[in-house]
Amino acid sequence: MFHRPIHVLFLAERNSSRSILAEALLNRLGAGRFEAYSAGVTPAVAISPYAIALLHRINYNIQTLVPKGIEAFGAPDAPELDFVFRLSHHLPQGRLPQFKGNPRLIDWFLPDPEDVMGSPAMIATAYADLFGALCSRIETLSQMSPTFLAGEAAPDRLERMGEAYIRLAA
Fold first, then answer.
1. CATH code for the structural domain at 6-160
2. Which of 48, 73, 146, 153 fits a disulfide with 2 by CB distance 3.0 to 4.6 angstroms?
3. Entry pTM
4. Residues 120-163: pLDDT tens digits?
5. Where are the domains of the chain?
6. Cα dist. 108→13, 19, 56, 87, 132 in Å?
């Protein structure tokens, strides 16, 4: 059982879209019960402008959001983590630091909207699809009981979550 907020780290390659959006959503939807963080293996210089636009639409204060490197979460002053969600296929296991807290590693591989080439409308659609997938999963995660999340079945349920989410109109 957890006697403090549940600490969650979202990892992606650059920490500029997927992981940033996931951090913001869980901090909003799980406020008081969860503390979310995000990082990247090779962090970007700035957050994607499309991600910023989505965060503005939900009135999220982006002042605290900056791309961060994964090394920060292996430092002595890093928070103790309960879960680490890998959002990218391209995160080498050997490059992950030793996290404090012995967190459970969960794979939520989601397409990177930054890989989409085309018109601004096509790119915006990729971001809307990502945002829909993250909202669905994170809303469910934020409503799970601490007892369930501490249990044996949690990692499997979390990995299977959202396998066939319904795309909502943006």
1. 3.40.50.2300
2. 146
3. 0.91
4. 999 999 999 999 999 999 999 999 999 999 999 999 999 998 66
5. 6-160
6. 13, 11, 24, 5, 14
